[in-house]
Specification:
Length: about 180
């Protein structure tokens, strides 16, 4: 199978039972993506697969032949941290760092989902644009556990990143008009 990880193409032979998480960590040496529970319960292994967030421990590598994976490593561009990573730093949104790569990938995915109008379990009006308020953020990030309970700051960081993202997009639209 072949797979692109953080912009680099890899070809590898894997046992059909190998999870994407094990392929990343054991075969490709991408140890930023963490193995917490290996059961789909902690979110530490979250990566972006073809732009959508997935739990890599529950994803079979061979099923994703040809796909594009972005881990927390690959979010930076030209040496600049991703705005979500910046927001986590600015808001002291992590402590141990074990859950952080998954939290950041998940936050990037959650902001994109909201932008595309994907509702969550707490979205009241399914026809309106999604606003990432603290309740929406808590719900959308609920699959990512933090044993240090940095949740308050994580929600603040995602809220700030979502607000900045919306402002950036609207100013880009203004410039294009
Ligand atoms: S390691 Fe995948 S959800 Fe915990
Ligand atoms: S900062 Fe990693 S578990 Fe909380």
């Amino acid at each position: 199978m072949s797979i692109t990880v953080d912009g680099e193409r890899h070809t590898l032979d894997v046992d059909p039972r190998t999870s994407l998480l094990d392929a990343l960590r054991e075969r490709l040496g991408v140890t930023t993506t963490k193995k917490g529970c290996d059961h789909g319960q902690c979110g530490a292994c979250t990566v972006l697969l073809d732009g959508r967030r997935v739990l890599s421990c529950l994803t079979l590598a061979v099923a994703k032949d040809g796909s594009d994976v972005v881990t927390a490593n690959g979010l930076a561009t030209d040496g600049d941290l991703h705005p979500v990573t910046e927001a986590f730093l600015a808001n002291d949104a992590y402590q141990c760092g074990y859950c952080t790569p998954g939290q950041i990938c998940s936050a990037v995915g959650a902001i994109d989902e909201a932008r595309r109008g994907v509702p969550s379990a707490v979205t009241a009006d399914l026809t309106a644009d999604v606003t990432l308020d603290r309740t929406e953020i808590a719900e959308r990030m609920s699959g990512n556990l933090c044993r240090c309970a940095a949740y308050v700051n994580i929600v603040t960081a995602v809220e700030e990143a979502a607000r900045d993202d919306a402002a950036r997009r609207s100013s880009t639209l203004e410039t294009q008009r």
